[in-house]
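Marked as duplicate of an earlier ticket. Keeping the data here for the record.
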Amino acid sequence: MMTLLVYVGGAIVLFGLGYVIVRATQAYFRYRGTRLVICPETALTAAVEINALQVAEETVLGTPHLELHSCSRWPERKDCGQACLRQIEEAPQDCLVKNIVGKWYAEKKCAYCGKPFANVDDIFNHKPALMGPEGQSLEWDEIRPETLPQAFSHCVPVCWSCHMVETFRRERPDVVVNNPWQPKHDGGPVEPPHAHANKAN
């Protein structure tokens, strides 16, 4: 009888420990990553990160509270009241950079080849780029997160393959030969965003 009680007690302890570990892990992954918020002081976009490890630890002990680990306005404004945390509490997934980026690309096609960004692999494994008015493209994670909303407003999306081709074309024009019967390389040269704007005017 005693042996049975020991087994039952051990199983309860293990179940409780497993439950706590699962909750802590979920809390960590829920709050890790870079997020975009509107700074209450400047009304401008700021890139912040939550101290996800602290949230996980406090989840084990009781009720966690959010605290910033980093902010694009630091160190100058490190002593701010962190009022932006309310935005994260209300919509932790909506302000996550990877979700914002994924949603923006998911609704678009490559400006060169016309290929739609149909799956996660197109966006996060082979990172697509943004091409600005000057005609040069950068992979989306090479752009400072807090400037992404502005970049989205005046850039066009370029898939990873076309970005690689155009980067090579720009950096090694001496070895690139354009095929006059193939106006697109997989999409081909396109006019930068400002050219389309000028035509519209």
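See parent ticket for discussion. The chain has a mean pLDDT of 80.
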